[in-house]
Amino acid sequence: MADDPTIGAMLDRHGVSRRTFIKYCTAMASVLALPPLVGRAIAEQLRVAQRPSVIYLSFQECTGCLESMTRSFSPTIESLIFNIISLDYDDTLMAAAGAQAEAAREKAMKDNYGKYIVVVDGSVPVADDGVYSCAGGRSAVDILTEAAKGAAAIVCVGTCSSFGGIPFADPNPTGARAVSDLIGNKPIINVSGCPPIPEVITLTLLQYVSTGKLPDLDEHLRPKVFFGNTIHDRCYRRPFYDEGKFAKSFDDEGARNGWCLFELGCKGPTTYNACATIKWNNGTSFPIESGHPCLGCSEPGFWDNGSFYSALATPHWGKAGEVRPADVAKLAGAAAALGAAVGVGSAMLARHRQKMTVGTPDTED
Amino acid sequence: MDLLELARGPALKVAVVVFCVGVVWRIVNIILLHYRRNFNEPRNGFAKSVLGGIKVAGSRSWPHPEFIPRTGAGEALGYSYHIGLFIVILAFGPHITFFGSFVGVRWPNLPSGVITIASVLTFTLLLAVLFRRVTNRVLRMLSNFDDYFSWFVTTLVIVTGMMTTAHFGGPYQTLLGLHILSFDLLLIWFPFGKLMHSFYIFPSRSLNGALLSRKGAAS
Q1: CB–CB of B4 and A248 under 8 A?
Q2: Is domain B3-215 annotated with CATH 1.20.950?
Q3: Residue B64: CB atoms within 10 Å
Q4: Are residues A12 and A114 in the same domain?
């Protein structure tokens, strides 16, 4: 926990005026789709709030989520970790290493028992006693279980910690699990995405710190304010979908004209995230704006949902998922052969039955 | 596995297999049935009989002028919703993607607005067809489970499709899953009900026409 008792005291020390702080909080409220007056309430709450201790645990991950978080513009990562929270453990960002780092984690957990926030980045492997992700000689599942005991809440950053992500993909050799699969008795917020939008991570933390409550969550424990709409619903290319104008390949006229990428495999209609509204790099753009279909990275099992480049409205069976005309022809051919055999058999049976009952001297075969 | 994955995955695969087995089974079965040997002296040769059969298939697809006042409305309804179905099934972009992935060929699509209008009109016509079936005494007495269930599976696909396009009634992936599942149901029912008329209608009319033409009785 920081030495300063409250966030307000910290801001005063840095010479941040009340007006500036209220403007900042109003902007936060606006991004969170809250009424402007709530900004004032957030400001009041934040000023008297203590900077909560945050323990950032990295497990089976690629550090992309942390990379993303460091690129948050509003609030910035430095504003977040110096003014809003007390980041007491993050083995990637902290100066300490080895035993010193682990000691910092243990001290933070002991000093703030029941009050600290655990942020988890990466899935948790449980196969073979969890040997596939260890730090300080302990498995990820051990570290998580211990940290979760005294946590006020757990924030899962990224699809790996939220749903298992890429390590969870078939055949999942490490037995990767989502945090919510392992921890059942603590409030959990999933901020999914591969990686999540930087501002979605920081604003989720900010909202929790300022209100002390969990935000409204969807069925996947994601904040509804960011994950309430599909990419498709808010996509600027949606009118082209409605008009039936689709890019058929990445270099055709439709692609050059910025038409809908549905037929190129866009998963926007089934993906809940704020990419189309908050966007990336301080609101510069998002993948569809760059001409690439949405991969659906914030959804459970996105890595196993077939090819990124096969449209949602296409057959999807077999190991690889993507069905080719030759596969269909083989299947249909085999089925037709079976049908023909059944047809011949049943016709023969019918003829035999007819012969037995009425006789058919005047029939031709 | 969620609903969409089930619908476009194993359920669709099973439906395609059942459809192919069923359709080929029924067609082969009919081809191999006994047919009475025709001892009549043919009035027309083989080529003329075949041409006559094709002609009859066309002429029987249109009401005789004398009967238009009595059957015209019903035929108009039938033709209209069939045309609507063809437009919706074959001219909507995502449908072309779907069928294109089966056959490896794609074709131009119509604007989604046109498809929406066609869907609403087709649905309305399907309701009118059902209304006519249950209010017309003769039709009602002729109808059985097959007629109503075939109507139901056809209409269900249209309704779930409209809901999916409009994002009405639930998340898109659920609606799309329901839409594809309803299509799977249609495929499974297809060979065993009156939907098989799609395969039978023109061959049977042509065959009847050819037989009549052979006798010199085709009109």
Answers
A1: no
A2: yes
A3: 10
A4: no
Q: How close A343 gets to chain B, by Cα (Å)?
A: 4
Contact assignment for B20 to A332 by CB distance below 8 Å: yes
Record the pTM. 0.80
Distance from CA of B217 to the nearest CA of A (A): 22
Q: What is the mean pLDDT of residues A199-211?
A: 88
Determine the pLDDT at residue A211: 81
With a CB cutoff of 8 Å and minimum separation 6, the contacts of A51 are A1, A2, A4, A6, A7, A10, A83, A84, A85, A86, A209
| Among A182, A204, A227, residue at a domain's last position | A227
Q: Parse chain B into domains and list their residue ranges.
A: 3-215
Specify the CATH number for the domain of residue A266: 4.10.480.10
Residue A362 to residue B35, Cβ atoms within 8 A: no
* pLDDT for residue A52 is more than 80: yes
Question: Which of B147, B182, B142, B184 has its CA nearest to residue B161?
Answer: B182
Domain check: are A276 and A205 in the same one?
A: no
- Under the banding of pLDDT at 50, 70 and 90, the label for residue B153 is very high
Domain that holds residue A155: 52-227
Find out whether A55 and A109 touch, Cβ atoms under 8 Å: yes
| ipTM for this prediction | 0.84
